[in-house]
Amino acid sequence: MFQHLKNALVDKLDEQRTQERYCTIKWEDTRKIEIIEQKYIRLRPLQDLEDNVTYEIYIDGVKRHGTVLAHGTKQHCEFILNKSSPHESKHQVEKNNSNRLDDLFLMSILAKLVNKTQSDDTNDDDYDVHDAKCAACRMKPIRQVDRYHCLECTSPTYDLCGRCFERRCQTGKHFNGHAMVHFKLPNEVLGIQFNNIDNEVNLNRLRNLDTLRYERHDDIKCDGVCQKKNFIGLRFKCDTCPNYNLCETCAIDKHICTKNHEENHPLILTSNRVMPKIDPDDIEMGEVLGRGSFGYVCKAIWRPKNRQVACKVIEISDRSSTSDPNHRSFLLELAAYRELSGPYILRTFAYANRDIPANRNRGSKTQFMIIMELMGRGSLQDLLENQPNQLSLRRKLAMSRQIASGMRRIHQHGMIHRDIRPDNILITDNYVAKIGDMGIARVLDPTGQQTQLGCIQFMPPEFFRDVSDGHVKCDEKLDIYTYGLTLNQLFTEKMHHFRFSSSLPCITITKQSPVFYDEIISRCLDEDSKRRPTAIEIEKTLEFYEQAFLKTMNSDSYIKMTKQQKDKVFIEFYEKNKIHMQRFVKENFPQQFIREIPIEFINKPQQQPISNEQSNEMCRVN
């Protein structure tokens, strides 16, 4: 018994040590930089520690003053210390002294990006309130983002909000490679309702639920060592590797890693019910929000949840074949949303279909429905048209980074969207941007052969140059090009000019963005697709600017400014710092954050291409 208590005490002390926080400090008296434990810093009750702030510090009863350059884990602070101690001569140090503080400030921002544990994009929608606390950013309750509940951290239980999960945050004894349950809706996962997540959602309970215990995963093979096909029981998919599945034994008992899968890749409990099919009568249709060649989108009430949603409706004649482009688009959109989720990907909850009998005017048809989250401000195109000159450059920067984050997520899963443009970017009431309309998204084919692509006015040069037999060779750099056009339109509120010519169609930028044109937009639009940046490089660069401007954004003077004054301040900040920040990012940014993401090609039976698809049909309106 005493040995048991001793072991428990040792475990508790180990846990406390792993959670100890450190700071990288620059001392006022000596100007030296070193790492100390946070406990030595004198804080007022309920005061949070902040970077770039000077504090009183008491060590062994001696009072000193020091500026916090970064705070977090010891490893995190050591990274900043090493970066802040270049091997320079005394003359070089004196020469560069005027820029020294700037570099240290940028180092503190870099530290946040490497070990980020705060949620920047908030929304006060009352529908999605998860009764849990995020172990990383401390948000409680978890609101308006998905909840991830760890199945391997049981005492205490462990939860992350969607954004901290996306950033791969880990604290205490939690490890990124742990198996987790993904809650899109409060207290519901895989169509199963729970009353007490902490007590009911654990491995023992889940493996004994009949709906999961006896579930057969047809046409799915375990990618672990067992290589079982059509296995029965719990199934886990990797949140990083595309199309990587493990049975419970390989995932939990053996922690198997094969192919490109690594031990720190999160595993998510999944099922054939991950996108549940619901009764169409559960949906009460309302106002039509928009129409397109696919059908229409309307507001709706999901009656059993008493929840406002958006419902995408596609109607297909029963005389049409299964190769009907709209029917195919519906099936592929469902497949894409089953594979993808993230804070900046439009959330999809369920689907339904019903038969509509024939009448005097038409034959019988089938109505397909996708139930999605309702985005209060519609599309980015709607926002720019309905609220011209209302968005500040700072807000546009945040939206640009959010779109880049969603695009990075798509590419990480070995997919390309193929239709990123303002019509397909949806905006919440609080101006959070998410990528929607996955109807023509595809798994990246090793041959690069594609048949159905997005709006022709946004297509890159290779689309027109490499067309042969109705096929186009393209990869994820197509999305980078369309993102570049979208980014320029977001910052200028002017669409580019598209013109057909006798040789190749021509795209002309009618107005250049006042910010990010040289370092991002022009690179995205490079005719040589190999020279275009990756999605993660764009995301991290924009996030770097976002964090650098954060202190100004939160100042009382900035908050009281008009939109025009805010834009002037932002442009001055950008012009003053862009060369220095570009150099800093190039020299100091950890390469694991901006390297090309390896994409494992997935050889799947490809559906037959759609024949006789005209270019004017490619430009689809959402």
From TrEMBL:
InterPro entries hit by this protein: Kinase-like_dom_sf, Prot_kinase_dom, Protein_kinase_ATP_BS, Ser-Thr/Tyr_kinase_cat_dom, Ser/Thr_Kinases-Pseudokinases, Tyr_kinase_AS, Tyr_kinase_cat_dom, Znf_ZZ
Pfam families, per database record: PK_Tyr_Ser-Thr (PF07714), ZZ (PF00569)
UniProt KW keywords: ATP-binding, Metal-binding, Nucleotide-binding, Zinc, Zinc-finger
SUPFAM superfamilies, per database record: Protein kinase-like (PK-like), RING/U-box
Sequence ranges assigned to domain Protein kinase in this UniProt record: 283-550
Binding site for ATP: 312
SMART domains named in the record: TyrKc (SM00219), ZnF_ZZ (SM00291)
Domain ZZ-type stretches: 217-275
GO molecular function terms listed in the Swiss-Prot or TrEMBL record: ATP binding; protein serine/threonine kinase activity; protein tyrosine kinase activity; zinc ion binding
Protein name: Uncharacterized protein
